[in-house]
TrEMBL record:
Residue spans crossing the bilayer: 192-211, 223-241
Predominant location category: membrane
Family: Belongs to the MCU (TC 1.A.77) family.
Membrane topology classification: Multi-pass membrane protein
GO biological processes: calcium ion transport; mitochondrial calcium ion homeostasis
Protein name: Calcium uniporter regulatory subunit MCUb
Lineage: Eukaryota, Metazoa, Chordata, Craniata, Vertebrata
Cellular component, GO annotation: mitochondrial inner membrane
Subcellular location: Membrane; Mitochondrion inner membrane
This protein's record includes keyword Plastid: no
InterPro entries for this protein: MCU_C, MCU_fam
Segments forming domain Calcium uniporter protein C-terminal: 75-277
Pfam families reported in the protein's UniProt record: MCU (PF04678)
Length: 308
């Protein structure tokens, strides 16, 4: 009689807990079972501390293994270890979706007890029902995109604008220093060009004076020949050293860069950091441009241009 009274009291307490708990309690058993109800897998197991059967409803497309294990530990505070392993002994990541886990058999470890769980057998859907389910999934996806994509794009636009402001703040002192260095290098290059013109004018005047007032053309002709030949050798040496033709604009730019880098080193201007920030700024501006095109996709081109 005492045994029967104890069993009856535990049975009544089980039903009392069932009314206040979020999970239904079933007949005690040590097995872990998985059954489908209303299209959702129901995992039934025994809580080790309370020795009661508890049923967990799982959303396989959304829920993860880690969330499922947290639900078990939340239901029974006496569980200190809850893990899932594959049949070959490898641990299943907490980020794995329950939909993937339920495709194959697995092992559930609760404290020091290991349960072998068989994958549930899901009823096969008819082709019409499967097509209808795919249409519903597609519709839900389109509704989610329509409701949340614009908010995500606006949030991303704000992040890109903040990044642009931060990059511009970092570039402002570098741009000012670069402008001063560039002005100094450009002035030096211009002075060098004017010095070259002055030397060429002096050389021409000296040759004319020697030809008509000091010597004759018969004497100065070989001199001018060797001067011309020496100039050709200088241009060829320039090509050998730089692998470029001696074109005046290119030569001027090359000399400008030479003065610029020498001045940058003297004033401790970090050219590599400046170039890196400029590349990041260009990438952020390009990303913002593409994002705004998606945001204003339904607006006329003229309106987009004016708004930009």
């Amino acid at each position: 009689m005492s045994v029967l009274q104890v069993q009856l009291w535990r049975h009544n307490r089980t039903w009392a807990r069932q009314e206040g708990a979020s999970y239904s309690m079933l007949v005690p058993s040590d097995e872990v079972t998985i059954n489908y109800r209303h299209g959702l897998p129901m995992i039934t197991l025994t809580l080790p501390t309370r020795r009661e059967r508890c049923q967990f409803a799982v959303k396989p497309v959304v829920a993860t293994v880690g969330a499922f294990l947290q639900d078990i530990q939340r239901e029974d505070k006496g569980i200190v270890r809850a893990e899932v392993f594959a049949t070959d002994g490898s641990k299943v990541s907490d980020a794995t979706l329950m939909e993937v886990l339920l495709m194959n058999d697995f092992k559930l470890v609760i404290n020091n007890t290991t349960y072998s769980v068989s994958a549930p057998i899901k009823d096969k859907l008819s082709s019409e029902h499967a097509t209808e389910m795919e249409d519903i999934k597609s519709l839900v996806h389109r509704l989610f995109v329509a409701l949340h994509l614009e908010d995500h794009q606006i949030k991303k636009e704000r992040e890109l604008l903040q990044k642009l402001d931060h990059l511009k703040e970092q570039l402002m002192p570098l741009e000012q220093m670069k402008a001063r260095i560039m002005d100094s290098a450009d002035a030096k290059t211009s002075r060098l060009l004017w010095v070259g013109l002055a030397l060429m004018s002096t050389q021409g005047g000296a040759l004319a004076w020697l030809t008509w007032w000091v010597y004759s053309w018969d004497i100065m002709e070989p001199v001018t020949y060797f001067i011309t030949y020496g100039s050709a050798m200088a241009f060829y040496a320039y090509f050998v050293l730089t692998k470029q033709d001696y074109v005046y604009p290119d030569a001027k730019d090359r000399q400008l860069l030479h003065y610029f880098y020498r001045k940058s080193k003297a004033q401790h201007f970090n050219v590599e950091q400046y170039n890196k920030l400029k590349e990041e700024l260009a990438e952020a501006e390009e990303s913002l441009k593409r994002l705004r095109q998606a945001l204003h996709l339904r607006l006329p081109i003229q309106e987009i241009t004016n708004k930009d």
